[in-house]
Amino acid sequence: MKTADVVARIRDLCPNFAHVDHLLMSSTSYDYPAALIAPVENKGDAPRINIPGGYAQDYESLFGVYIVFERRQDGPADNGGADMFDRLCDELRAALINWQPDWALSPITYAGGRMAPYDAGIVTWREDFAVSTEVRYT
Which residues of 31-59 are buried (b: 16+ CB within 10 A; e: fewer)? Predict the structure, then answer.
C-alpha cells in the first residue's frame, strides 16, 4: 500500500480536515480535526508459484484513518459537534470507498469503524478500509 496516495486523496477531497498525515510519521502537534492514516493489518493469500525467476503474492491491506478532534460541548447538548463528526466520516467514506489507486488490485472497501483511546479533551475515532494489492520480487 502507498500511504502517500491515500493522504493526498483525503487532502484533496476532504476539506473539513485541518490536518492530514501518516500517523507514524506525523508531528505530535497539529490542528483539529485531523485525519491520521496508519496500517492496521496485512493478510497474505497463497503465493503464486508460476512467476519465472521471482515471487508474487496478493494480500489484503487493512488501514485505519484516525479522526482526531477536540471534544466540545456547548450547553447540555452540542449537535454542532455531532454534525461535524458525521460530516468528517461522510467526506472520508466518499473519498475512499470504491476508489482504486493505480497500485491496487481492486477498489478500496469500507471495513468498519470504532472508538480509539482518548483523553478528556481529545476524541479519536478509527475508520477502517481494506484494499487488495501484491508483493512482487523478481
Answer: eebbbbbeeeeeeeeeeeeeeeeeeeebe
